[in-house]
Automatic annotation (TrEMBL):
It comes from Cylicocyclus nassatus. It comes from the Eukaryota. This is Uncharacterized protein.
Amino acid sequence: MREYLLVSAVDIMQRLPSMLDRQALFLFEMTVDVDASVKITALLYLTKMLTIDLKPRGTLSNVALCMLRKSAPSNNSSSSQVRTGNPEVIALARKLFYEISIKVNLLMNVMPT
């Protein structure tokens, strides 16, 4: 359900950019969602919006956190497991930063003021 709401909100942002300008932070917050499919959808739409020169306002720190492999804290030392991040999410986050790096002024446009 959250994916559908995300897609609908991004569609509105593309058609009427000034309507959701102040509420666009939700798009960056969705990149740290619990559900991997929501993260993937958010990263895909962020990449799309940034490459077609729509500039959602927000910070890229949540996107950078997607590239990290996380280790889960363990309650007992005998069953310590390392949980890695979803490889697809990591690849999409790296692709987003790659797309930012090839655009000339895009990095300056997404930096907070």
